[in-house]
Amino acid sequence: xxxxxxxxxxxxxxxxxxxxxxxxxxxxxxxxxxxxxxxxxxxxxxxxxxxxxxxxxxxxxxxxxxxxxxxxxxxxxxxxxxxxxxxxxxxxxxxxxxxxxxxxxxxxxxxxxxxxxxxxxxxxxxxxxxxxxxxxxxxxxxxxxxxxxxxxxxxxxxxxxxxxxxxxxxxxxxxxxxxxxxxxxxxxxxxxxxxxxxxxxxxxxxxxxxxxxxxxxxxxxxxxxxxxxxxxxxxxxxxxxxxxxxxxxxxxxxxxxxxxxxxxxxxxxxxxx
Length: 273
Prior knowledge:
It contains nine helices and 14 strands. By secondary structure, the protein is α/β, with parallel strands linked by helices. The protein has one domain: Nitrilase/N-carbamoyl-D-aminoacid amidohydrolase, CATH 3.60.110.
């Protein structure tokens, strides 16, 4: 297993509904990241279609072995790298759509995560996922979530307790909530002693302006590298030894009383229902 490697984060605008144009741009940015030595590359949420494509969701949706992921899988295998992102996933039954993060690597489709916490109008577009998985790779243990989920500490905590070294967040986070993006990304890293890789959209779709400011966050909550407002890539170094070091520095995961916490969460959820 590699413990010290580079991660590339793609921050891009999209042409709504034009997969060919968006994938052409994605491939260019992936090549730039590979040229800079990246072994893991994270793309934004709905990078292949754009975000505000509500009327085209069914037409644009793909399965996890569809054209978009298949192309990225080929690039992964040809270059011995891992690529993550999020697409509109077509479920097994007609009309079942999910906002789904995926991870591909040299060994194939490593895993996926269907977005659980849906933002605003997404509740009318997508079904919810129901699991926080962690995937074992040559680059460590990796968790996947999507965008708005960065503001829900329970997901990252569950994945950290399952052994995650990194959690990846393909995102289309809005500019009016940039303050939340800045705080939540660092908080999720610090409170779990994990790397956070947050790949956000740039530009706008219709009346939605995206926050950009993609980031790689260290387990101590410090920013390894951040993007500005423009399209492009950032590349930063990940050293998994820092995960163990930070968890010794502040042993949140060792000291958490898991049974009591789970009982409290269950009680709270039951109360709200």
